[in-house]
Amino acid sequence: MDSIDADKFWKSILLPLEGEVQDQKFLEGISGERHPVLAFSEDSKRKRIVAISLDFDVRIARTVQSDIQAKYSDYHVIFARPVFFETQLLVANLTSRIKKQEFTLNEIEQWMNGLGGPESDSLKARMTTEMKDFFATAPFPRKATYTQFPFLFLQYLMAAFASFRRSDFWAFLESDPPPDKLISTSDFLLEAENLSDANRGICPIPMYQMTDADLGLFQRCDRDEIQERMSEWGLFQYFFPPRDQLALALIERGIVQSRELEYYINDAPKIGHPFGKQEILTSENSTVETIEELEAMGLTTRVEREILQLTNEGHEVRTKIYGQPRESFTSKLLKIVKLEISTKGWFSINVNSDDEAA
Question: What pTM was computed for the model?
Answer without folding.
Answer: 0.80
